[in-house]
Amino acid sequence: MQGSPGKAIDYFLEGARLISQPGMRKFILIPLLVNVLIFFVVTAYLWNVFGDVFEQILAWSPDWLDWFAWLLWPLVAFVFLIVYGYSFNIITNFIAAPFFGLLAEKIETQLTGTAPPDEPWSQLIPRTLQREAVKLWYFISRGALVFIIFVMLFFIPGANLLGVLIATLWSCWCMAIQYSDYPADNHQLSFRELRRRLNSQQLTSFSYGGIILLGSMVPILNIIVTPIAVAGATIYWVREVKQL
Q: How crowded is residue 76: how many other Cβ atoms within 10 Å of its Cβ?
């Protein structure tokens, strides 16, 4: 496989440094406000759902399998953290997509000295929302198959770890696509071509998506992860993906 996890870490850390600069703060204000609102809604909802789901697992399990149900507790908690981070990102990005596109444009201009093709807001907003809908359909349609595989494996001792691994890798891939798409969309690169280019650098792409997913799983930290993720993905685009 091509790419490097070290590059993914470097892009993310450099993205964090970039958005902390004074000129960038106005581009992340609205996304951060959106993140705060979504944080409270998603966190409260999934916290309640987690307790209900685990109680159902205990209720469905026969008495002689009680020991196994309790062994599943850490696994269930980890899965819910993945769902939490994944849901947080998908909802945030659908709402804040135009602002993240502007942030990616600003960062690319700073890195290269050349701005992506200019586009009026009247065209930018509907186009970016349409692009988010295309991505959402991709995530849902493929994600449904991943979910079916995950459920089939979850209650099989040993195999359930494989199911979690598959779901985790899928989530990492989705995060890499989600954030790399902002600079790619600024150049109107097709969604299919973006996926091909990211797949050609699998170690970098999956590692970068994993960093974002991990940050999104941590309450409070996930509020600031998304703009950093956009910045880092734009650096990834400028340094590698654009030339592939």
A: 17
Q: Considering the entire predicted model, what is its pTM? A: 0.81
Tell me: the pLDDT tens digits for 58-101? Answer: 666 656 556 666 666 677 777 777 877 777 777 777 777 778 88
Q: Provide the residue count of the chain.
A: 244
Q: Which residue has the tokens 């991709």?
A: 138
Classify 82 as helix, strand or coil: helix
H or E element at residue 228: helix 221-239
Classify residue 72 by burial, with Cβ atoms within 10 Å: 0-12, 13-18, 19+: buried
Among 145, 157, 154, residue whose Cα is nearest residue 76:
154
44 vs 131: CA distance, rounded Å: 29
